Amino acid sequence: MSASAPPEAWEPLLRLARLASRPLERFLRIEAASGLVLLAAAALALGLANSAWAPHYTAILETPLGAHLGAHRFERPLAWWINDALMVLFFFVVGMEIRREIHHGELSEWRRALLPLLAALGGMLAPAAVYLALAGGPASRAGWGVPTATDIAFAVGALTLLGERVPAALRVLLLAMAVIDDLGAIVVIALFYSRGITLAGLALALAGLGAIVAMQSFGVRTKWLYVLPAAVLWAGIYAAGVHPTIAGVIVGFLTPVRAWLGPEGFTETVRGELERLRDPGERASVPGGFTAALQRVDDARREALSPSEGLIHALHPWVAFGIMPLFALANAGVSLRGVTLAGDHARIALGAAFGLLLGKPLGVLLACGLAVRLGVAELPRGLAWRHLAVLGVVAGVGFTMALFVGQLAFADPARLGAAKLGVLAGSALAMVAGLGLGRALLRPTRRADIAQSADEAESSTAL
Q1: Three-state secondary structure call for residue 260
Q2: What does residue 67 show for φ and ψ, rounded to 5 degrees?
Q3: What is the pLDDT of residue 227?
Q4: By the 8 A CB rule, do 83 and 327 touch?
Q5: Rounded CA gap, 399 and 305, in Å?
Q6: In whole angstroms, what is the distance from residue 345 CA to residue 348 CA?
Q7: Which of 45, 106, 159, 279 could form an S-S bond across to 333 if both were Cys, CB 3.0 to 4.6 Å?
Q8: Whole-model pTM?
């Protein structure tokens, strides 16, 4: 039996399991994998919504779930639990990613952050302007925020499919821009797509927030203990009239990005414990014996990473391959029989589609061109305007966040269906156009550049 195998494992079956898991492990390491799963979930949702199974699909999403205690009852449809509860974890990871990038990533120095900041700002303003120019009546204009966000999974997936044509600097620029883009979308949701503030709910949210800050001040490091005050914060924000996913962003921003021990402290602790345990005389004097020594090593291992890094590492696969596909499955099911593309409905669909397909690249290129022209920013080494053109088109894949904003913008099912159809069409066309433009404009890079790109992207990847 191998020393790395559990003592109860049977070696032949263990070898078979490892052999079967290798392709899956490689698949999960590919950044495009999340985008492929999202695409499959969206296709499944579209198929179900336009098939004989459509009534069952709708009925499942409308299934009430909740709990009651005495006379108090809290019950919501399954779709609500996905969009307003599970998506909190998505926004929690996004908040930690943004905080990490600001602390020690691509956004930690204003000179490096300025170009992606302006690119993201232009990539939000121009799509909103295109949408408003096409939207029509006041009720339709409420969806101006739909085409402003980029779906990082699909955008990174598109660059991955371009392979050797993508230099390292373009990959890092996209990731930095997407992080800022997510922050902008969060601000838009908080300011423009929330109901009026209720003071009682706000007080409850502040109580949850205060509990988190107080626990951090007392040095509480056990992560699961923060679940209760985070839930109080979520409930307070929901009761206050602000969309509850904002609670995930707040907690993500509050999660510490600095490690307590770090690699050096971990190494020192482990070396000290091993030296004491190796000497029989010292072993007898170790407080708590061998078990306590292992516990101290485990504590050092946990504190070698910051709480933010540890949580991102733990939650990112669940969010990327669980929550986001589930969200796509619940929200991408547009019944073409129920969508009437006439009047304002057609304008909503066109505004969302052209906002993503034309507004994104137009905004990114204009903002970057103006910044370079004024001398406030410069293109990263190795990038030319053709790279930014590809970046702008790929950024037009909105999907997850665009569908999410559409849910908040339109209560009318017909308008929401038109917005979803526009998002799906615009995102699909942007993906195809980005791949075609990339193959036409970008030349393959050297293998050394590809390795550097992979290393930089691994250290900078956001949701």
Answers
A1: coil
A2: -150, 160
A3: 93
A4: yes
A5: 32
A6: 5
A7: 45
A8: 0.72
> Is 74 strand, coil or helix?
strand
Amino acid at 98: I
Where does 322-412 have alpha helices with state H? 324-331, 344-354, 360-374, 385-394, 400-409
Q: Which of 103-107, 165-169, 228-232, 457-461 has the lowest mean pLDDT?
A: 457-461
> For residue 74, what are the β-bridge partners?
67
CA-CA distances (angstroms) from residue 39 to 199, 316, 332, 420? 41, 18, 10, 15
Cα distance between residue 84 and residue 81, in whole Å: 5
Length of the chain: 463
CB atoms within 10 A of CB 77: 16
Q: Which two tokens stand for residue 402?
A: 């665009």
Mean pLDDT calculated for residue range 322-340? 80
CA atoms of 28 and 153, how far apart (whole Å):
13
Give pLDDT, residue 451: 47
- Residue 461 · residue 171 · CB < 8 Å: no
Q: Label each residue of the chain as H, E or C.
A: CCCCCCCCCCHHHHHHHHHHHHHHHHHHHCCHHHHHHHHHHHHHHHHHHCCCCHHHHHHHHCCEEEEEECCEEEEEEHHHHHHHHHHHHHHHHHHHHHHHHHHHCCCCCHHHHHHHHHHHHHHHHHHHHHHHHHHCCHHHHHHHHHHHCCCHHHHHHHHHHHHHHCCHHHHHHHHHHHHHHHHHHHHHHHHHCCCCCCHHHHHHHHHHHHHHHHHHHCCCCCHHHHHHHHHHHHHHHHHHCCCCHHHHHHHHHHCCCCCCCHHHHHHHHHHHHHHHHHCHHHHHHCCCHHHHHHHHHHHHHHHCCCHHHHHHHHHHHHHHHHHHHHHHHHHCCCCCCCCCCCCHHHHHHHHHHHHHHHHHHHHHHHHHHHHHHHCCCCCCCCCCHHHHHHHHHHCCCCCHHHHHHHHHHCCCHHHHHHHHHHHHHHHHHHHHHHHHHHHHHCCCCCHHHHHHHHHHHHHHCCC
Place of tokens 């966040």: 401
Question: Closest Cα to residue 352, out of 409, 428, 419?
Answer: 419
Q: Which domains does the chain have, with CATH numbers?
A: 31-66+74-192+316-460 (1.20.1530.10), 262-300 (no CATH)
